[in-house]
Design a protein that fits this description.
By secondary structure, the chain is mainly α. The chain is about 50% helix and about 0% strand. About 5% of the residues have low confidence.
Length: about 500
């Protein structure tokens, strides 16, 4: 890397990035001058119609990428890469620069953090100006994920660390009391604040006369690719923060959605060209047959596969952090907890819609190169139950995935089928209601004046009201009434 003040050996990367940032800066100034006089900008390349906000986003997103590229270096290259990034990014500010200190009086860490805070401010401004501008939300969340690395790139281990309040107060959306991943997840969740047909807050709009760039921007593949990127980032954040309930809620949204085109084409082809007989909730998430390979290319199925595997990972994390090894003298709560984890892990496996024998076709399961999270969750939940009599006389042979793990998995499936014979993949956690019953009063206790009827599940011995009896009576109907007329008795 060259020195900070430049040298004949400046890299081509710095020259090209400097030219790109300069072009964005000039375009931003021109766009603002056009908007100031009340004129409307022509649509930018790419099909966006957000005017100067689009250019502002691209400028600061490029600055962010320069910083990320710099702090990703290790060893001796780190300092040179950061100085190179500072030469590129300190030329284009979103806010006015504090000129009390010169660059020579500031440390590299201070200068990097100043640029980082300025970038986040610019990205947050894009969302404030245009509430439907979704690109800046993704970059804002990405920036918060990298906050611990920008603070200390040498000793930081990732986004699960915190940033001190002396630094975090300058970054919009960054909470110093929680890991940076939690703050990023909060920002990203603004695109998933409620159930939508398209799953996330991204829409496609078309004009009467569309340019070639707009046609490309509204193409279904690009639209699905954009939604898939946001969904993957949202699910990654939920996994890092171990938000099991939010993952299950999003999975319910996906299972109630309509098929996407790749899934519909595949399903209709397999049903001889007629309408698919089964809903998309019954599609296999683990593709082991070549005749279903097209189905795996769709946004909906790939998102469901990712969410289901992340849910299994969260279950494994929860089981690892809790002591759920019930013995003969264990408490009832401990046994219920272990059975609950086994039930949820089994539901994750059922959502794959594949047989145990199909797992042997997977290279990851056969050679142990990767793990199948749903299988790992079922095995761990079964071992945590403590009832492993079925494995007492088992011959494990070697310790590869097709021997020991497969025997444990088969024993776990037999246990699950015995405990939950009617369980399906649509099973999710039920949220307990914390709202008080509106129809309950102080007199609803046993012996009170307004006793309620005992439900079938209530224990014996509770008071119940008298049985309801039916009485018939006759009513005189006035003459001359027509169909649909009403009368008082």
């Amino acid at each position: 890397f060259p020195t900070e003040h430049g040298s004949p050996g400046i890299r081509l990367y710095e020259k090209h990035m400097g030219a790109a940032l300069k072009a964005y800066s000039d375009a931003l100034a021109q766009a603002k001058s056009i908007e100031d006089v009340g004129r409307q900008l022509a649509d930018q390349a790419g099909g966006s119609a957000h005017g100067s906000t689009e250019v502002l986003y691209r400028l600061h997103a490029s600055r962010l990428k320069c910083l990320i590229n710099a702090v990703s270096r290790h060893g001796e290259d780190l300092e040179g890469a950061e100085l190179e990034a500072l030469r590129l990014t300190e030329k284009h500010w979103f806010t006015d620069v504090d000129s009390d200190k010169s660059d020579s009086e500031r440390t590299v860490r201070d200068r990097v953090w100043n640029v980082f805070a300025d970038i986040v401010g610019g990205l947050a401004h894009c969302r404030q100006v245009h509430p439907f501008f979704h690109r800046s939300v993704y970059r804002h969340a990405q920036a918060l994920m990298w906050a611990p690395v920008f603070y200390d790139p040498i000793s930081s281990s990732g986004s699960m660390e915190t940033v001190p309040a002396t630094r975090s107060f300058r970054i919009r959306g960054l909470n110093n009391s929680t890991p940076a991943a939690v703050s990023a997840q909060v920002v990203m969740s603004s695109l998933f604040d409620k159930k939508r047909a398209q799953l996330c807050a991204v829409w496609v709009t078309t004009n009467v006369a569309s340019s070639p760039f707009q046609l490309l921007n509204t193409a279904i593949r690009k639209y699905d690719s954009l939604r898939g990127k946001y969904i993957a980032a949202y699910l990654e954040g939920l996994k890092l923060c171990n938000r099991r309930s939010e993952i299950e809620t999003f999975m319910k949204w996906m299972y109630s959605s309509k098929r996407d085109l790749p899934s519909y084409f595949q399903a209709s082809a397999m049903s001889a060209g007629v309408r698919p007989a089964k809903a998309q909730a019954h599609d296999p998430l683990l593709i082991t047959d070549n005749d279903r390979i097209l189905m795996s290319q769709g946004l909906l199925l790939s998102s469901k596969r990712k969410a289901n595997s992340f849910l299994a990972d969260v279950l494994i994390h929860e089981m690892s952090g809790k002591t759920v090894h019930p013995s003969i003298g264990a408490s009832l709560d401990s046994k219920k907890t272990a059975e609950s984890y086994l039930k949820h892990a089994y539901a994750c496996y059922l959502r794959l819609h594949c047989e145990a024998a199909d797992l042997k076709k997977l290279r990851a399961f056969r050679y142990g190169t990767e793990s199948v999270p749903e299988v790992e969750a079922v095995c761990q939940a079964y071992l945590n139950m403590g009832d492993t009599k079925a494995l007492a006389n088992a011959d494990f042979g070697d310790w590869s995935g097709c021997s020991r793990k497969f025997l444990i998995f088969n024993a776990a499936l037999e246990k699950c089928k015995a405990l939950y014979p009617t369980l399906s993949g649509t099973f999710f956690s039920k949220k307990g209601s914390t709202k008080p019953r509106k129809d309950r009063t102080d007199d609803d206790e046993p012996g009170g004046a307004n006793k309620r009827r005992r439900s079938p599940d209530s224990p014996m011995g509770e008071s119940c009201e008298k049985e309801t009896t039916k009485a018939s009576f006759e009513v005189a109907v006035p003459k001359g009434l027509k169909a649909g007329d009403t009368f008082l008795t």
